[in-house]
Amino acid sequence: MAGSPAASPHSGAPARVLVETKLHAPPAREQVVLRERLLGRLDQVAGHRLTLLAAPAGYGKTSLLTAWVGAEAHSRPMAWLSLDADDNDASILWSYVLEALRRACPALDVVDDLASPSTPALVEVLLPRLVNALSDQAGVTLVLDDFHLLTDSRARASVRWLVEHAPDDFQLVVATRTEPDLGLSALRAHGQLTELRADDLRFNLDEADVFLNGRQMLGLSTSDVRLLVERTLGWPAGLYLAALSLQRAEDRHGLVSRFEASNRHVTDFLESEVLEANDPADQDLMARCAVLDRISGPLCDALTGQSGSHETLRRLARSNLFLTPLDDDGAWYRFHPLFAQLLRVQLERRHPGLANELHQRAFAWHRDRGDTATAINHALEAGLHSEAADLVAQTWYTQINLGRFHTVVAWTDRFPPRVLHSDVRLLLARAWALSASGQEAEAAESIVRVERLLDTHAGSLPDGFSSAEASLETLRGSFPWGNVREAHAHAVRALELEGPDSPWYPVARWGLAMADMWRGRFREAEQQYAEVIALANRRQGHWLILCASLAYCSMIAGEEGRTEAQARLVDECTLVAREHGLVNATSGPSMALGAMLNDRGRPAEALPVLQRGLTLARHQGQPLILLRTLRYLGDSLTMLGRTQEAAAVASEARMIMAACVFPAIDSPITPPTRRATSESTSRQPAPEPLTHRELTVLTLLAGKGSEADIGRELFVSHSTVHSHVRSIYRKLGAASRAEAVELGRNCGYLEMAVAPV
């Protein structure tokens, strides 16, 4: 994946770069046999949710699907994605899936903001949108090739959700070497599964004859063809291996009689016959390039120290089915995995230890061209832990801004423990990635290790932090995990360490703003957020905290009744989220919009928005964010009369509140005293109805808690509580708390209210 070799936190996050060769089927090969019987089975899948091609390597799964897609693309939308190990990061996987579907269906309208790539966010936010959009498209087919490379359970679970919920006329086609966890038993029982297994994909006698005598023009007798089919068990790759050697053999019948089909014999056959069919220079080039996932002429030149590799690869691709072009221009290629495995064995036998040097050269080539992710992978393979650590330390923030938390964590997992646990830069990158993905316990483990190394590490970091302590303090100020007291202290310390000229200053300031808001100090928080907004707009690259700051400012404006400011801030927050791909990165936009809709008496519209926000808040893992989202959700449910659900939400919120740590709240504001304008105690609603929030405050006034206690329970400032109390007094015509409660009870308001969130 292309990217910047070094990213500073104040630089704009680059757009996600997609590898073109993954998004279309490989070019058709002249030697491939058109297998009509299997193409017919692929066509007869109406009403089937899943078509599965499951067989070991070399059974022609990709070749069959390539031919089928080519034949059917004119009559239906056909999307193709070749999976690889990077797609285990859900953000990358679904970016590719959506792009593949868009290319097949240009009218498909789905927002793919995947900076928060958790399975819950995908399953509950993005995928329902995708299913709804696919419902408006006719007969879409999506092919996922090499599904066995998708090993992450969460990524697989998201694909399974799509299988279970896709429209009836949507067809998912999966090619894999291993059994996929896609609910096959249920699909099979309901007649919604088409399966092509190894027995189906084996060449029969007629197909083998077409391949050996028609395509390869070997002139074999029917008995020799039958013998090869028997010896190979119809394994297409085995027949091709035999054909490569038979082309040069004088005694073809004798060679057929010696061919065996066991893995050991096939491997021996590959070594002794297929490689020997090429001249030594070609053999050496192929062996050296086997360390690469994708091969190009210039890259191959860098590995071999020679020139002209581009033409050599083109020539080999024309004569060797095991070297597959990945594009129509012949710029990039890939070896068949079985053949690549053999070549790597041969490389080690012929040149012991050379693989390490080749990975080093590949690392340097990709690094110099800005392909940081691939460079890191080769550096780790080569054991260049220092070089890999340098790149990770430079680029982790860019990866996180793209939503690739899994990628950063996976990189750090690949370092030997002695290296990881002694490098404060790697531990900090890991702690940030784990925190951003809501993995508190794992992040805490890395933070403990960082603390042990602080005394041994001095100086600035490649990511722009002035010191390891500054990074750690900013991290802890940004992710409070429910402890507001500690988060505030860490945010204050972070600002001491990162001055106004630091690229991380807006993030440190944002942490302080959050702490002030959680403490109920809305005026101070709003001032802090305003500075963050100004800095983020001026320096760019901090779109996530800009979006969150606008969201929380809108909530504060709503709490204080500044409706025009609230609406303007919601609009700005939504615009930033859409422009920078953050709709699913943070719960802030959903919370802000849902709160505004509630305040305008539109709870039915607010409810689905807040439910989406709740999904994102759960993924973020921050109790304080979850608590506020639950509060707004409870408001919607109560206004809709769904009191039982609102009570459940309130119960969860109280449990979360009990586990959080807040600083002491300032002294309560003395309630106003004024004469009642009405002495009526009749059980009639007041002329001016109470809002839902005022009903909640009135319910709490009936208890024993002070206004300070009410502010703590509602998670708002004292001034906000005081404003609600004053409005209640005015509307009810009350002069005291007791009188307000009594009048409210007589008006039936206390029966209307439910336990607050």
Describe the structure.
This protein is mainly alpha-helical and 757 residues long. It has 6 domains: 20-30 and 34-201, 3-Layer(aba) Sandwich (Rossmann fold), CATH 3.40.50; 205-277; 280-379; 384-457; 472-659, Tetratricopeptide repeat domain (Serine Threonine Protein Phosphatase 5, Tetratricopeptide repeat), CATH 1.25.40.10; 668-757, Winged helix-like DNA-binding domain superfamily/Winged helix DNA-binding domain (Arc Repressor Mutant, subunit A, Orthogonal Bundle). It is built from 38 helices and 8 strands. Strands 2-3-4-1-5 form a 5-stranded parallel sheet. It has a 3-stranded antiparallel sheet with strand order 6-8-7. Helix 14 (297-304) crosses helix 17 (354-368).
Short description:
It is built from 38 helices and eight strands. With 757 residues, the chain is mostly helical.
The strand count comes to 8
Class of the largest domain, according to the CATH hierarchy? Mainly Alpha
What is the count of helical runs?
A: 38
What Rg do the Cα atoms give? 32 Å
Let me know the CATH homologous superfamily of the largest domain: Tetratricopeptide repeat domain
Helix proportion range? 55-70%
The biggest beta sheet reads: 5 strands, parallel
Q: Beta fraction of the residues?
A: under 5%
CATH architectural arrangement of the largest domain: Alpha Horseshoe
Low-pLDDT segments: 1-15, 664-687, 753-757
* CATH T-level fold name of the largest domain: Serine Threonine Protein Phosphatase 5, Tetratricopeptide repeat
Q: Quick check: average pLDDT?
A: 83
Structural class: mainly alpha
Shape: elongated
Distance between the termini: 45 Å
How many independent structural domains? 6
